[in-house]
Structure formats: C-alpha cells, structure tokens
C-alpha cells in the first residue's frame, strides 16, 4: 500500500493550463481568422470590371445622344460594385476600377449632356427666329406687300424665281374662289430639322407651317426651307408653291 501511494503523482488542476495549453488556445483563436484579408481569398469584383468597360465605352455617347444609355449603365454598375466591395469583408477588390468607371461615365456622359443642352438652347433661339419669319411672310402676303415679302427670301431663291413670278404665284391663290388670299402663316410647333452644311458657315432648316386662307377654314400644311448665312436667317424655298414655277 505505501508503494502505491508513492507512485501517485500530484493531481494536476484541469483548470490550470500550462505552457502547452496556452499555445493551443492561441492556435485555436488564430485559426478562426487565418487568411481573412489575405491575397489568397481576395477576388476582383466582376461588376467593377463591367463598370470600367462601360466607362471606356462612354466615349461613344459623344457621337449621339441615344448612346447616353452607356454612361448611365456605367454609373449604375460603378455604384453597385462599390457597394458590393465594401460589404465583402475584404474578400473582394476593384474599388479603383469602379471609381475609374464612375469618373469616365460621369465625365463623358455629362459632357454629352451639356453639349446637347447648349445646342438645344441655340436651336430654340433659331426656331423662334424662323417662326417670326413665317409670321412676317404671312403678314406681308395678306397686305399684298410683295416687295417686302420677296425680300425675306435669300439670294439663291432670287436667282431662281423672279419678282414677277413670285407675285403671280400668290395672286393665283387670290383668284381661286375656294381659297382667296393668304391671311397668316404660322409654325406648327413641331421640332424643326436643322443641318450644318460642311465646308461653309451655312445652316439649313426646314419647318412645317400652317397656311390660313381667306375662304378656307381648314389651314393647309406646307414645308418651308430656310438658310442661315453669316448669322442671318432667310427663306430658301416653299416647295409646294414654287416647285414648278418658271423663272
């Protein structure tokens, strides 16, 4: 019995961990976070790549306002990618790609938008001047002031249509019992087509006008062509009236 008691060693307290126990405990805590944020677990966010591609493609929006859908999609993809990366607990990267796509989309798309707004402002001013020319022509024709009405047309029209032919063309309406003289000419408020002529400082525009006659309650529609040269608009032609007119 005494021998057996001598072979028993001191009982180790289970709660007291030695040096080996502390190492194992530390190893356990490290294993739960090992690799988080390291290159092995980080992937490039695909939406960020798409945002960059759309940002580069936004240059196409400079060609047409219809293609503004590209930078709009680029902005959406960039914002989505940034949100996904920030919520990925550092397992995704690509913030630089998303930010670059966002800058390109906003810069190129915004530039096209500003250009469109500025151009529309100028077009609106030109449309108002053309509408005024229509009204002046109607007033002069109603008053039978053909000299003043003829002066509203440009030089190329004068080379093609003489003053006498011009007056006779409108006197023909006066002789018609069903129509009578022109009372007024007004723009129909529909957008006008404008085109810059290459190689010179000339802009051509065409607008739809309502012709109101003395004895015809329903107005007639006709296209009037205008030209802007040296900053001044002039009437270039009224095809429905002068298409087959002699010089």
Tag the structure with descriptive keywords.
2 domains, two-stranded parallel ribbon, 9 helices, five-stranded antiparallel sheet, alpha+beta, 247 residues, Nuclear Transport Factor 2, Chain: A, 51% helix
Task: Assess the beta-strand content as a share of residues.
Answer: 15-25%
Count of DSSP strands: 7
Radius of gyration (CA) equals 40 Å
Separate helix tally: 9
Mean pLDDT: 82
Instruction: Indicate the low-confidence ranges by residue numbers.
Output: 15-21, 27-39
State the end-to-end distance: 145 Å
CATH superfamily of the largest domain, called what? Answer: NTF2-like, domain 1
CATH class of the largest domain: Alpha Beta
Looking at the structure, what is the overall shape?
elongated
Topology, pairings included?
Blueprint: H1 2-7, H2 19-31, E1 43-44, H3 46-57, H4 69-86, E2 92-93, H5 95-142, H6 146-150, H7 155-160, H8 163-175, E3 182-187, E4 193-197, E5 202-213, E6 216-229, E7 232-237, H9 239-242
Parallel strand pairs: 1-2
Antiparallel strand pairs: 3-5, 4-5, 5-6, 6-7
Helix pairs in contact: 3-4, 3-5, 4-5
Would you give an account of this structure?
- The chain is an alpha+beta fold and 247 residues long.
- It folds into two domains: 22-116; 143-242, NTF2-like, domain 1 (Nuclear Transport Factor 2, Chain: A, Roll), CATH 3.10.450.100.
- Helix content is 51%, strand content 19%.
- The strands form two sheets. Strands 3, 4, 5, 6 and 7 form a five-stranded antiparallel beta sheet that branches. A two-stranded parallel sheet has the order 1-2.
- Helix 3 packs antiparallel against helix 4, helix 3 packs parallel to helix 5 (95-142) and helix 4 (69-86) packs antiparallel against helix 5 (95-142).
- The longest helix has 48 residues, at 95-142.
- The termini are far apart.
